[in-house]
Amino acid sequence: MYPLPEPFALRDRTEADHAFLQALYLSTREDLQQALPDPALLQQLVAMQQTAQETGFRYRFPQARQLLLLRSGLPIGRVVVDTGQHALRLVDIAITPQARRSGAATAVLAALQAHALAQGLPLCLAVAHTNHAAQSLYRKRGFATASEDDLLAQMVWQGAPA
Q: Which residues contact 108 (CB under 8 A, 6 or more apart)?
């Protein structure tokens, strides 16, 4: 797979991870939390949005691996990676708010960069223009913007790890 330095690790996602993944998705949707103060309605909408996101991933990247990111054996995030013929793509990475800025995303990126380098592939990803922290991290890791639209920047890394 993609070896990470201790205390981090990746493992395949299982059905038993559903509750964690639901809570993780909710933590990434502050917009919905602010717009819907009714917890029952919020839970329904989040479940629908999460299902739509996962369906979209499976449709666009049917061979992608859905992985759980662990720190000291406990789940702290999710990583979706697609190995294509011409590129390795980080489809999505989400980390719990408590684990952000802990080095977890950097460890994942370094492992993916090492794998891409070994396979002779570029590493690609898309990032929202509003996600300044992620954009900064990606630039520090040597990613460059390849194209962009109103919502997303498509970034690519093609060289040795930063």
A: 2, 4, 8, 10, 69, 79, 90, 93
Residues spanned by the domain of 134: 8-157
Q: Alpha-carbon distance 107 to 105, whole Å?
A: 5
Task: Provide the domain count of the chain.
Answer: 1
The first and second tokens of residue 97, run together, are 């708010």
List, for residues 49-79, the tens digit of each pLDDT value.
899 999 999 999 999 999 999 999 999 999 9
- Residue 97 phi/psi, 5-degree rounding, is -55, -35
The pLDDT score that the predictor gives to residue 43 is: 82
Q: Which parts of the chain sit beneath pLDDT 50?
A: none
Residue with tokens 């449709």: 59
C-beta of residue 61 within 8 angstroms of C-beta of residue 89: yes
Residue 2: inside a domain, yes or no?
Answer: no
d(CA 77, CA 95): 4
Gap between the Cα atoms of 134 and 151, Å rounded: 14
In CATH, what number is assigned to the domain containing residue 135?
A: 3.40.630.30
Cis peptide before 97 (omega within 30 of 0): no
Q: How far apart are CA 108 and CA 69, in angstroms?
A: 9
Distances (CA, A) of 140 to 12, 53, 84, 101, 161: 28, 28, 24, 14, 10
